[in-house]
C-alpha cells in the first residue's frame, strides 16, 4: 500500500473549520483502521466527491500514518483514541507468581469490560470523534465497528442543522466469521442484539453482494432490501503488451508462470497450501503481494532451499496501482477455507482486482458466491483449498491450457468487468440512495419490520 502527500489542514473545536463553515453537502466516511489506504473507502469517497460532496475519511490513528493526508479534494484524517477506554482496551500486564492473586481479578475485570463494552478497542476512537469531528449530512459507516458511533454522530449533527443521515455498509457478516467462532453463544447473542439495535437506527443499509443482502434482510427482518454496492473495481483496460511488474520486482525468469496471492498475509488464507501446490505445478512461482502479520515469516520462506525461486513475498501497493501488478500475473489464487458463513459469502477485493486485470482465478470450491461467477463465465478453476494436490490441479488447469484458450479466458474476464462487474455501474444505485437520503426523499426506514 502507498500513502498520499501530507496536507495539514488546521481545524478548530468540535463542529467548526477554522476557515469557516463548509459549503454544500458534507460526507464523513468512518473507517475503523488507518485507511492507509482502504480501497473500498477510497472508491466511495471519490464517487461522492465527484458528485459534489465535501468528503472526509475519518480513520484511526496508527504508527507510521500521517495525521492528515489528501487524495485530491478528499481529506483523510486519523483520530487518536482518548479517554478511559484507551486503558481499558489494553491487555492486563503480566505478573509474578507473588502477584498472581491480584492478577486474576484484573483478568476477570478485563473480560467483563470487553464483553459489557463491546467493541471496546474502538471506543476511545469513538470518544475522540464525538469531541473533534465536524458534523456532516451523511455518515457512511464501514463495518460493525463504526455503526454505533455513526448513529451518535448523526444525532448530534441533526441538532446542529445538518441532515445527519447514516448508511451502514455491511462489508462482511462479521459475527458469522472465524473472528467470533469461539465466542460463547450467550455473549454472541448479546452482540447480535446490539448490532440489530444499531441497524434499527440507521437510515439505509448497503452491502457487498446479493447473497449477503438476502441474508441480512432475512435475519434483521428489514422492511427495505439493502442496496448492493459490489466491491468491484473501476473499469481498466490493460496495455498491450501486458505489464510485467512482478517479474521485474522479484527477479523471476521470463519463462516461469506467476501465481498471485493478493491481500492480507495471515492465518486462514490458504498460504501454506498454496505454497505447496505451486511446487507441484510445472515452472511456476507463488508471489504474495500484500501486508499483514505473516509478512516476515513468508519472506523467510522465500529463502528456504525448498521454496527458493518458487516463492516470493512483495510489499503491498496502492489500490490505484493494483490492476497493473495483477495483470502481471498468469493466474490468481484464492485458497481461503470456507469454514464460516462470512467466508462462504465473501467477494473480496482480490477477486474483483484479478478479473478487472484479465487474470484468471483459482478459487476454493466452497466459496459459493465467487465460485458461481467463475463457473458462469469460465473465468478460472475451482479446487479444494485444503488439498495442495487439488489446488495444483486447478492451477495447472488454467496455466497449461493452449495459449489461445488462456487468452480467451483472460478476454472473458475483461469483458465481464467492463460490461457488468465494474465500479462505475455498481455505484449508481448508491449515489441515488445518498441523494434521496439527504434530500429527505422517499427512502423507507431499513430497521426491523413489524
What does this structure look like?
With 450 residues, the protein is of the alpha/beta class. Helix content is 40%, strand content 16%. The strands form two sheets. Strands 3-4-2-1-5-6-7-8 form an eight-stranded mixed β-sheet. α9 links the parallel β9 and β10. α9 packs across α15. The longest helix is centred in the N-terminal third of the chain and has 17 residues. The N terminus is likely disordered.
Distance between the termini: 45 Å
Q: How many beta strands in the DSSP annotation?
A: 14
Largest sheet: 8 strands, mixed
Q: Compute the average pLDDT.
A: 90
Give the structural class: alpha/beta
Summarize the structure.
The protein is built from 17 helices and 14 strands. The protein is α/β, with parallel strands linked by helices and 450 residues long. The longest helix is centred in the N-terminal third of the chain and has 17 residues, at 100-116.
